[in-house]
Amino acid sequence: MAEVLCLIDETPGARHASVTLRHTGKFNAMSRGMWEQLQQVFTQLQREAHAEDPLRCVVVQGAEGHFCSGGDIAEYSDFRFDTGSLRHFHEELVWGGLSAVLACDAPVIAAIEGNCMGAGVEIASCCDIRVATRQSRYGAPIAKLGFPMAPREAALVAGVLGPTLARSMLLEAAVYQAPDMVTHGYLTRVVEGNAELRQDIQQSVARILQLSPSAARLHKQMMREWLQAQEDMLLRQCSTAYDYADSEEHREGIGAFLEKRPARF
């Protein structure tokens, strides 16, 4: 089962939502359908954030002990080797989902446990507050698959991670533990285990529910304006960003992963 679930607590004056990434057996890897669902869910939540009784907070989490392990690589051979379909995947599906999370005017909290890799790092980077268990792991080892992170996705991640950590993740395929990520400022807080994570998230939601929803909306709109200049620059780069689609290294990296063997670059 691959899906993005959304539940809204309709308590008057304290409406809040939980969004769950679920891909059974794949540590919640994002399929193409899940990216579409993510966009649909957050488009609706944005409308709820401007309702008469506004949505005040959203929690994003993964199912079954993990946040998100990346993209569903089993799908990649179907579309990644053609420039047009590759561009559509990143610019329409992936960025459609990520930009919908970024556009949400209610505060968004990421509750992170287990694997938070690739697409998981991207989704978490769209959230305003990131709370994680000590055992959670972070990385974007796509160089092992023979392709780069898409321009807007890389800018998003680097802007939150910082350039030093982003370079290490992308150029060394380095994987980091939660204590490292809080030291570098990526995580807001680290807690010991799953029970502590649930308690911390509940407390964070409770604090936000006591605050002005209009102030939250204005703060988020202001912060998005700061990022707009970078976005305009990256759009100019996207015209050639996916020309690697039919390259030998791209095919070899994905083929080796699917065949469960080391890649030969």
Automatic annotation (TrEMBL):
Alphabetical UniProt keywords: Lyase
Highest taxon, organism lineage: Bacteria
Gene Ontology MF terms: lyase activity
InterPro entries recorded: ClpP/crotonase-like_dom_sf, Enoyl-CoA_hyd/isom_CS, Enoyl-CoA_hydra/iso, Enoyl-CoA_hydra_C
Any one of the GO BP annotations: fatty acid beta-oxidation
Pfam families, per the entry: ECH_1 (PF00378)
Residues in the signal sequence: none
PANTHER family attached to this UniProt entry: ENOYL-COA HYDRATASE, MITOCHONDRIAL (PTHR11941:SF54), ENOYL-COA HYDRATASE-RELATED (PTHR11941)
Family note: Belongs to the enoyl-CoA hydratase/isomerase family.
Protein name, per record: Enoyl-CoA hydratase/carnithine racemase
Protein species of origin: Brachymonas denitrificans DSM 15123
